[in-house]
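Aim 2 progress update. The chain analyzed this quarter is reproduced below.
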Amino acid sequence: MKEIRAKFLDNKVFDSRVKSPDMEKKEKWLGYLAGPAGALLLNAVLASYLNVYYTDVLKLTGVWGGAFLMIFPIISKIVDAITNVIMGYIIDHTRTKQGKARPYLLLAAVLLPITGILLFTVPQGNETVEVIWVMLSYNLFYSFAFTIYNMSHNLMVPLSTRNTDQRGVLAVFNNVASVMVTGILVALIFPMVVLPVLGVDKGAWITMAVILSIIALPLTLLEYYNTKERVTEEGADLEETEEIPYIRQMKAVFTDRYMMCLLGFFLIYTIGSNIKNISLVYYCNYVLGSYADGITQTMVSVIGGVPMGIGIFAVWPLAKKFGKRNVTMAGFVLYSIGSAICYLNPTSMVQVLIGQFIKNMGGLPVAYVFMSLMADTYDHLEWKHGFRVDGAAMSIYSIITVTAAGLTTGIFNLMLGKAGYIAPEMIGGQTVAYAQPEAVQQVITFSFVGLEIFTAIICFVLLAFVNVEKGLDEKQAVIKERNEKKRG
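Predicted structure tokens:
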């Protein structure tokens, strides 16, 4: 199968359009900014609104006595975790002219649109059929299609180059793509323009899903053709002569202090962020504003998102001067302060907007430079052990991403159900929402503005142990010298 895959990808039609040994302009703008926008937009919409589709449109909150929306995301993410390990193994054992991770962007470009549409075309009328369709479509997207995309996409920065400055720039552009779709399209345009039109009309939701899914195809191809795995190409002849057992790669990951602290940091940060993101719509609908009013969520997102735009120009110069780790730690001090300001008076629009602005100023470094810090740690591990662990480490990273998403969704839905959440109804062609009990409002408020006070403090402490940037240039020089000796 490997030989067939390698031969298939040897065709020049699949060659990268990036040829230079150094970073190119089109690589930044097309491969790392515009290209990822399609898949990231689809995923961001799902992360923010798929649960709303399940609770408000399909009305699954009461299925299995309220247990379905808690159990199925958690079980699904266990499956997703397994497929991430498998995908990590596959990537580390892939040998093609196009690299070891890039080829899977090509496969994901086809799979994402198909599975994205299936998520919303759930047949109704028979609860058993509905439940089976939801579980299958959810796992086809997250455990299969998006796992393939996410792991290959996240490895593009670490595998792009060893030049830390160029790698840092690509990491910024890569995260600008994420901020662009989540901070502008999903957080601003959706609540102001799209959600009021969608309401709880299932047909409108399906149309939206079809449009977003189709957009993902050409943009993912743009990412594939405008990225290049220079690090993989650099050691291609060496990798052919030495096959590193996967269990040895995993051992290298789990026994390294820097990597374990970074993965622990990422787990805590992801849990806090996921619960905040899931609860955002509910918080704006029932605590700070009224249901799909088109104003409240837009205001929260605009004020919270302004710092993300500023950060494009500010974060990387600060990270170069003070260090990626140090700037990120300082950011989390602001992060916790901003969250606390919101939590002190969660129904005050002015106070919440001030707190959101401060919090997102603090979140700038982790948004823009974290993947570059991970890439530094990959190089550190290569220096330490003499082999790359990209697929193995990324499988753990992706497992954290997906399992945290399932766990947080299940927990949030359980809390909503137990607190007595009342789903809106379609009456006379109009969406009618009901006032939520006090217990529901408390659950939503803590989820959106309370929890991240504590996750920010934990993240600060974990980052204090990640001093991986010290001596990195010397370590990269050792790697280069070692590879030259192996070549003879």
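The chain has a mean pLDDT of 88. The radius of gyration is 22 Å. These observations will guide the mutagenesis experiments scheduled for the next reporting period.
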